[in-house]
Design goal:
two-stranded antiparallel ribbon, 11% strand, alpha+beta, 4-stranded antiparallel beta sheet, 6 strands, elongated
């Protein structure tokens, strides 16, 4: 009858634990409406390149300048930001191993020694005093204890909570890998854009030096005309001022070149040194043709989108694991070893052998505030991860849409600036000739030269923007990390 009552008691406890766990809160059901409503096309008017996607082109094929390729290779080896990201991957990998380790029993080996004296007038002390270990040999007093053996502990994953935690860790690890790819893409974009900006500064420096020589000649002509009474001192001073201004601009550009070189060196993870480049081919560079493809390809090509998607998956699994904390857990513990009150008795087998096996079923019943807080935190992070994912998709689409328009407009802008420069070049020759023949004053010459200088500088900037915009759209389509 007593055994029957014990069984009823155990069953009642188990039933109460199960009923208590049934009151676990439900996670917020989230729906990704942004991903479901991504437009079919970037531009309804022009879908000639819908079946192509330049983002899939490896960067070594996309960039053809050997000097730029060498800089990118150096940055991929030495960039500190990339090295930090690689360590984040190692940390996430260790997290997966830690979660995986919880699925298997924990086995430890150990030993111990101690001594204990029980009171003579206690049940334990009286029992030890009347117990004979061997005929004629009573239990020693005080009583020693020497033990050693194996101890195992295992939480049985009856609700698949541990497996869910491991899956979450795997998803987080994969997201760090995609994060590394995103850093690669950004790094290559930064190196390429900085390289083109440096080439643009080189060409602007050449232009300002040519302009300085032109001003020097104009100053000499004005002095000759002044001596011939064909010009005034005002014209001479104006040309002197313009010459000084152009020389000052030259030093400004030189400083910008140094800073841009060091910016590239920082991306390459090295101390300042000259950047090898060929500035003479800059204005003749033809931007790569970029095919945008369709928006759905962004989901497969852009590492930041895949990273956000994996973080969302990890967050969902975290909520599932946090909810299972409300369920009872089953732990099994076992020991196997040797135990005796004298070291010499440890080798006497099987008398010194000791073993134990126990199972424990326990679950939260009354005070569950900590578990609830953990669940609510995981649920909020899940919703936050969804918003991050939606924001990443939306920004990616807008990036490509804006850059598609920018590529076309910058091409038109470059063509018109080229025509403006050619026209002003011819006007300079005409103005100088008229000035020599005293048929135009110095102001007309200065204005023509300034307009031509500005147009040339803007043409170089247009070429740099043309090249950089193509790099930007290449990166925005998910290129630059393969």
């Amino acid at each position: 009858m007593k055994i029957y009552n014990n069984k009823k008691f155990i069953a009642a406890v188990a039933l109460s634990l199960v009923l208590a766990s049934c009151k676990a809160p439900m996670a917020t059901v989230i729906k990704d409406e942004v991903k479901e409503n991504v437009p079919q096309n970037f531009n309804q008017e022009d879908q000639a390149d819908a079946n192509n996607n330049s983002g899939t082109t490896p960067w070594r094929q996309f960039f053809t300048d050997p000097n730029l390729v060498a800089l990118i290779e150096t940055s991929l080896k030495n960039n500190q930001e990339l090295m930090i990201t690689l360590q984040e991957i190692e940390i996430a990998k260790s997290g997966v191993l830690a979660k995986k380790g919880r699925l298997t029993p924990t086995v430890t080996v150990g030993g111990g020694a101690g001594v204990r004296k029980a009171g003579r007038y206690t049940s334990e002390g009286a029992g030890d005093a009347t117990t004979e270990v061997e005929p004629g040999k009573a239990m020693p007093d005080p009583l020693g204890n020497f033990e050693g053996g194996l101890m195992a502990n295992w939480e049985v994953d009856i609700w698949k909570k541990l497996r869910t935690e491991k899956e979450s860790a795997v998803a987080h690890y994969l997201s760090t890998v995609e994060g590394k790819n995103f850093v690669l893409s950004n790094l290559i974009e930064e190196v390429a854009n900085s390289y083109y900006e440096l080439l643009a500064l080189d060409n602007q420096l050449d232009i300002i030096q040519q302009y300085t020589k032109l001003q020097q000649k104009a100053l000499e002509i004005s002095k000759i005309q002044k001596e011939a009474a064909a010009a005034t001192e005002l014209a001479v001073k104006k040309f002197e001022a313009e010459l000084a201004k152009s020389k000052a601009t030259e030093y400004t550009i030189r400083q910008q070149i140094i800073e841009k070189e060091n910016e590239i060196n920082a991306l390459c993870g090295r101390f300042p040194q000259p950047i090898v480049r060929s500035k003479g081919d800059f204005m003749s560079m033809i931007p790569q043709t970029v095919y945008t493809g369709i928006p759905s390809q962004l989901l497969a090509n852009r590492p930041d989108i895949k990273q956000a998607e994996l973080e969302l998956k990890s967050a969902k699994l975290d909520v599932e694991a946090a909810r299972k904390e409300f369920y009872p857990s089953l732990e099994i513990s076992a020991t196997l070893g040797l135990e005796a009150f004298k070291p010499s008795y440890l080798v006497k087998l099987p008398e010194s052998m000791a073993a134990s096996l126990a199972g424990e079923l326990a679950g939260p019943l009354i005070n569950k505030s900590a578990i609830k807080a953990n669940f609510q935190s995981a649920d909020a992070k899940q919703i936050q991860a969804l918003y991050e994912y939606d924001k990443t998709i939306l920004n990616a689409y807008l990036d490509v849409a804006n850059l598609m328009s920018k590529v076309k407009n910058i091409d038109h802008y470059y063509q018109l600036k080229s025509e403006e420069t050619q026209a002003l070049e011819k006007s300079i020759d005409i103005a100088n000739q008229l000035f020599k023949n005293s048929r135009a004053d110095y102001l007309e010459v200065l204005l023509n030269q300034r307009d031509a200088l500005d147009a040339k500088m803007e043409l170089v900037e247009a070429k740099q923007k043309q090249l950089s915009t193509v790099v930007d759209i290449y990166k925005s389509l998910g290129g630059g990390w393969k």
